[in-house]
Design goal:
Strand order of the largest sheet: 1-9-8-7-6-5-4-2-3
Shape: globular
EC number: 2.7.1.50
Enzyme class: transferase
Number of helices: 11
Keywords: ATP-binding, Kinase, Magnesium, Metal-binding, Nucleotide-binding, Thiamine biosynthesis, Transferase
CATH topology: UDP-N-acetylmuramoyl-L-alanine:D-glutamate ligase
Bound molecules: adenosine-5'-triphosphate, 2-(4-methyl-thiazol-5-yl)-ethanol, magnesium ion
Helix content: 40-55%
CATH superfamily: Ribokinase
Number of strands: 9
CATH architecture: 3-Layer(aba) Sandwich
Structural class: alpha/beta
Protein name: Hydroxyethylthiazole kinase
Pfam family, one: HK
Radius of gyration: 16 Å
Number of domains: 1
Oligomer: single chain
Largest sheet: 9 strands, mixed
Length: 264
Amino acid sequence: MNIQPVDFSGVYAANALQNLRNTAPLVHCLTNDVVQSFTANVLLAVGASPAMVVDPTEAAQFATIADALLVNVGTLTLPHADAIRAAVQAANRAGKPWVLDPVAVGGLTLRTEFCLELIKLRPAAIRGNASEILALSGMSASGRGVDSGDNALSALPAARLLAKQTGAIVAVTGDVDYVTEGERCLAVSGGDALMTRVVGTGCALSAVVAAFVALPGDRLENVAAACRVMSCAGELACQQTRGPGSFIPAFLDNLYLLDQEALA
Ligand SMILES: Nc1ncnc2c1ncn2[C@@H]1O[C@H](COP(=O)(O)OP(=O)(O)OP(=O)(O)O)[C@@H](O)[C@H]1O
Ligand SMILES: Cc1ncsc1CCO
Ligand SMILES: [Mg+2]
């Protein structure tokens, strides 16, 4: 029997963020070509340390040094897949957590088969929009390219199934983010629809999830904390801006300035 989603505590998120700022986890990002710079800036603003090391040999070496690895298949190519395989295997051997962002999985064969291969390699967390989580779990989805055509709550059963199948914490994001380990589920509200009008907020969230899974403590709550930090900064930024152009700098400022009071 599945336990109903529970509203996530802002107090835990505030403590986890403080812990992250104190330790500045080194996050190895194998992400897509569209969001490299935005992802690095989001990690820096939050208080983590990004590095994009992409050559297969170097990626395997660096995965053992970094505190966590992000794998994002947004602009997957065959050489990139080789680097991801090498890095994931090295991270697993070194006991470092890694996170999968299954961008646009479903309709496209290369990335879908590759992600199905990757989820057998014990990701610590999987973060995707509703259509991606539905498709990755084998259920039918209405994604349109990288954008979701499904509602996050409708993908919660798929997220639970995927978590049970893989042992990963699964975060399915949208108007509300749901974070589950199969049975237990945390609901993270906040954010703003404007966040979907800027490229890479989800991709950057997956990088922040990687930073938070490097922290000690309850992994389910750490992933929810990452979601809360992004939703909270996004919501504040939207209150201060009129559209996508000014959202980006306001979002980075709010991530950097985020305090206990805002998160709670
Ligand atoms: N309708 C909404 N209302 C509030 N927040 C939202 C809404 N839709 C998305 N978000 C927030 O936007 C962020 C990105 O989530 P989303 O599900 O859009 O990821 P995504 O589709 O993978 O994005 P991308 O591929 O562009 O990086 C999350 O923090 C999420 O909570
Ligand atoms: C727009 C886009 N195309 C491939 S990856 C990406 C970034 C958002 O997921
Ligand atoms: Mg995405």
